[in-house]
């Protein structure tokens, strides 16, 4: 039942957003309709090139001077460029530069000129073409590492004798780490998998993700593909997509200190979540992205899938959205916000979102869905408002209404910057029921434990939550009890949290990081030096 609402005026917090919160454009913007699997090559801060999957016959190329308005440059038709072969089902191109030469890797099928394409008994593979200058007039495609035992272009359906991870199938991505140039690609076995090799040393293959090598959760549907590599502040990132393109498609990533460490042995973090309506049908998906930096700001360029009322994919188009970074290097999510509020005894809650245009979507998440809960994850769908889709960049503020008699008048509002992953609202007279702790990831094999410092005595209780419970997790919800010693330590009596990490059980040489706590906050992020 939709709560009865009194007539409400916009609060001063909403009006205040005309300053700081609106200073940066965090909106999601359409770059190219009907274009999927986008890749952006940056020549410099005022010249970018965009390509992606188009009609399957040609690969379109666009250019831009501001990473916002793109104009058509040319199509690349490999069948026209190669007098000996025809190509079809072209997708997932990658633009890069080696010295003064431009390269275009792409996935597709190849047959003799005039033959049916694709033929029976052929699997998709990857080719590369080159262009001498920024006219991007690419020549005939060439196979990769032909006539070798290295990872290579192969049109047959069988795995190579050296292993399935030597078949360069789809979604190639080049990356220069400053010392070596790498080629990442997807191969098939029990689903889609990601591997790489150094172009100067192709004999060694590094496996990064996928069900043939790593355990993957069911919602990824056996698909790990579309690798994207970048480096920031000394950290390496590998972003990839999971799920079928017409199903649970979403973006994930791992971070590490070196390229070979970018594997699922590290923490796998969500970058996006596919949207579903109140009936559980798909509304929107996101994936196959590239991270682009311009003048110190980072942007996620990705394709967005649209679905009809029955949950069937109808189109994919390329969008851009700004991404920010947390103190430990983690990226802000494309479409998730953890909204928390303190507890009033006997009260229930309802959530509205205030948009930057001054309108209010309410209830976005009604009391029927929230009840007496004190947190929710806003994922972009207001299921209590006709499944309206609202992107993070449209939001100016969150409102929590609270009631103990189903009369909905009082509320608290918190301004929102359009990009953060966490918002906490303080209800007058409320108490803090929990605190969500998050911390930085250390070595690949590190395990963690949680200590608390008492406010009354200054003494540390360590561990409060031991390694047997925390293990390799990077987050924990503390609700007032130290499970390891079996004692209660209420949040009001905690003045600091400490996270310790150790490798191979060597807690004598643990490394720890601490953060002060005020007894009321519902979220704390801790960095381990």
TrEMBL record:
InterPro entries xref list: Glyco_hydro_43, Glyco_hydro_beta-prop_sf, Glycosyl_Hydrlase_43
Keywords assigned by UniProt, alphabetized: Glycosidase, Hydrolase, Signal
Cleavable signal peptide: 1-23
GO molecular-function terms, A-Z: hydrolase activity, hydrolyzing O-glycosyl compounds
Gene3D superfamilies: Glycosyl hydrolase domain, family 43
GO biological process assignments: carbohydrate metabolic process
UniProt superkingdom: Bacteria
Similarity annotation: Belongs to the glycosyl hydrolase 43 family.
Protein name: Glycoside hydrolase
């Amino acid at each position: 039942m939709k709560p009865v609402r009194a007539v409400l005026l916009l609060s001063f917090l909403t009006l205040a957003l005309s300053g700081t919160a609106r200073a940066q454009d965090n909106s999601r913007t359409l770059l190219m309709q009907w274009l999927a699997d986008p890749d952006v090559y940056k020549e410099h801060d005022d010249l970018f090139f965009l390509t992606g999957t188009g009609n399957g016959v040609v690969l379109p190329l666009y250019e831009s001077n501001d990473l916002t308005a793109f104009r058509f440059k040319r199509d690349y038709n490999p069948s026209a460029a190669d007098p000996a072969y025809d190509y079809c089902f072209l997708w997932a191109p990658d633009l890069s530069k080696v010295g003064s030469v431009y390269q275009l890797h792409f996935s597709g099928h190849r047959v003799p000129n005039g033959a049916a394409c694709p033929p029976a008994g052929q699997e998709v593979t990857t080719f590369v073409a080159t262009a001498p200058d920024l006219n991007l007039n690419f020549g005939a495609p060439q196979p990769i590492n032909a006539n070798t035992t290295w990872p290579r272009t192969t049109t047959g359906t069988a795995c190579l004798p050296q292993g399935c991870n030597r078949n360069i199938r789809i979604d190639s991505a080049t990356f220069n780490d400053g010392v070596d140039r790498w080629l990442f690609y997807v191969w098939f076995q029990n689903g889609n998998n990601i591997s790489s090799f150094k172009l100067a040393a192709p004999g060694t293959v590094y496996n990064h993700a996928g069900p043939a090598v790593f355990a993957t959760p069911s919602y990824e549907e056996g698909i790990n593909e579309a690798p994207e590599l970048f480096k920031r502040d000394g950290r390496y990132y590998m972003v990839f997509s999971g799920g079928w393109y017409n199903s649970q498609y979403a973006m994930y990533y791992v971070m590490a200190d070196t390229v070979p460490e970018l594997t699922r042995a590290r923490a796998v973090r969500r970058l996006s979540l596919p949207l579903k309506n109140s009936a559980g049908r798909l509304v929107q998906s996101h994936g196959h992205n590239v991270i682009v930096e311009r003048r110190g700001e980072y942007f996620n360029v990705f394709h967005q899938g649209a679905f009809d009322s029955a949950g069937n994919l109808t189109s994919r188009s390329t969008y851009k959205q700004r991404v920010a970074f947390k103190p430990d290097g983690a990226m802000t999510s494309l479409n998730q916000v953890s909204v928390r509020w303190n507890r009033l005894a006997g009260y229930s809650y309802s959530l509205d979102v205030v948009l930057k245009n001054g309108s209010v979507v309410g209830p976005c998440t009604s009391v029927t869905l929230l009840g007496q809960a004190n947190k929710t994850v806003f994922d972009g769908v207001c299921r209590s408002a006709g499944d309206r889709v609202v992107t993070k960049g449209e939001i100016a503020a969150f409102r929590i209404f609270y009631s103990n008699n189903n009369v909905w008048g009082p509320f608290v509002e918190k301004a929102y910057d359009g990009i953060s992953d966490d918002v906490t609202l303080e209800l007058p007279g409320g108490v803090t029921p929990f605190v969500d702790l998050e911390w930085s990831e250390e070595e690949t094999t590190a395990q963690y434990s949680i200590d608390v410092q008492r406010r009354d005595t200054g003494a540390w209780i360590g561990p409060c939550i031991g390694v047997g419970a925390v293990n390799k997790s990077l987050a924990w919800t503390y609700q007032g009890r130290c499970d390891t010693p079996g004692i209660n330590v209420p949040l009001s009596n905690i003045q600091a949290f400490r996270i310790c990490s150790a490798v191979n059980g060597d807690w004598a040489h643990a490394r720890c990081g601490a953060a002060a706590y005020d007894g009321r906050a519902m979220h704390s992020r801790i960095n381990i030096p």
